[in-house]
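pls design
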């Protein structure tokens, strides 16, 4: 079976191993492109995109989304050892994907997470859409206060989509009619991921985990990475090294790349 969510991130000609990179909430693989390019002489990088947007797969839990991603990954590599990367909110997805592989008896060589936390909602928030107010504001640099969020809870996704489009339009964003369906898919996928994270209990693991973070911050959202491993858990971060920006772009990228090269993709 062919999955639209499987995307090649580099053109490695003679790869010795594959690296599978998991999407962030709402979709996105851009963060991995620098690593994919740098390691293309030895490693083939594959991105696994958001399953609702790309495969039409609707999920209710982190276990469900991970099982779907395992099927996608196995269309390329049918057996281990596996290397799995997860950036930001892709971290818990990567962790659960690796756990699901182990449940199938597969070998997981390592999991590497970058800025491994889900920070964009309150774990106690029982509403369906309200978390999107701050999430969208942070992502797009816009104010979404004009939306009646309580009414969105009552009216549902189509009302919310129209309200979000009005905000974009008011900020001068030139949207095409074809963008409307994409916006709806992204908003639905974000709500699916939020619900999956709310109900996610992290399993203990037996594979090696590498954690790279700009800084360790306890957030109001889910600080999901408090788990045990009979493998090794290696924290590769030193906050003093990093500028106040993403660890996968310069000037931080060179530091992160070197750590990945020294410890993971040797």
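designed seq:
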């Amino acid at each position: 079976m062919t999955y639209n969510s499987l995307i090649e991130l580099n053109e490695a000609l003679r790869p010795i191993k594959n690296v599978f990179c998991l999407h962030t909430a709402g979709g996105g693989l851009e963060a991995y492109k620098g690593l994919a390019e740098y390691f293309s002489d030895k490693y083939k990088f594959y991105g696994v995109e958001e399953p609702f947007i790309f495969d039409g797969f609707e999920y209710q839990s982190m276990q469900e989304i991970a099982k779907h991603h395992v099927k996608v990954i196995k269309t390329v590599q049918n057996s281990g050892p596996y290397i799995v990367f997860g950036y930001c909110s892709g971290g818990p997805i990567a962790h659960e994907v690796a756990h699901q592989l182990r449940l199938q008896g597969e070998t997981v060589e390592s999991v590497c997470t970058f800025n491994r936390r889900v920070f964009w909602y309150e774990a106690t928030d029982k509403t369906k859409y309200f978390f999107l107010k701050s999430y969208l504001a942070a992502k797009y640099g816009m104010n979404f206060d004009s939306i009646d969020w309580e009414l969105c809870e009552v009216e549902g996704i189509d009302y919310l989509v129209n309200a979000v489009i009005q905000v974009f339009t008011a900020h001068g964003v030139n949207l095409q009619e074809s963008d409307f369906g994409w916006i709806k898919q992204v908003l639905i996928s974000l709500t699916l991921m939020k619900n999956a994270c709310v109900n996610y209990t992290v399993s203990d693991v037996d594979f090696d985990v590498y954690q790279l973070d700009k800084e360790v911050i306890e957030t109001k959202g889910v600080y999901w990475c408090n788990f045990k491993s009979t493998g090794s858990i290696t924290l590769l971060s030193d906050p003093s090294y990093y500028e106040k920006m993403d660890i996968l772009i310069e000037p931080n990228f060179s530091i992160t790349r070197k750590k990945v090269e020294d410890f993971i993709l040797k």
